[in-house]
Amino acid sequence: MEYLTNPLIYIIILLIFWNIWQQIKLFSIQKKQTILFQGESAKNLEEIILIQKNQIENLEEEVRKLINSNQELIELSNTNLSKVGMVRFNPFKNLGGNQSFSIAFLNNHLNGLVISSIYSGEISRFYAKTILQGKSIPQQPLTKEEEKAIEIAIHGENTRT
Question: Are residues 146 and 110 in the same domain?
């Protein structure tokens, strides 16, 4: 039993346990490494990281392009005539139905035009007026029907005059 009192034995036993623990940790790392490299053509982690970096840079460029395209589409949509309002009316009380109309076409900045048609039996006359920021220019005053058509285009109401 003299060998149990020798401190060298305890150190050797401790080193054996330490070696077993290190082998378990190494096996765990190898298992994770196998999962990491699975399906990849790269031979080492540095190549995989460089491939991922390049893919991320490409994706960032694509996202920048999409953001720019989206901004261009937003700006373009603000200039498209997207708001419409129409009013039908009878300018002559003694003649038939509501054959006359005013129709407003506006964009998101409330710029556009209003077109009116006055029907009087055999003749129809058409008038077009410029609209800037929801209002007519001073040289082209609006009728109450044209104002109502603009109001409908702006607020989306479906009322008739």
Answer: yes
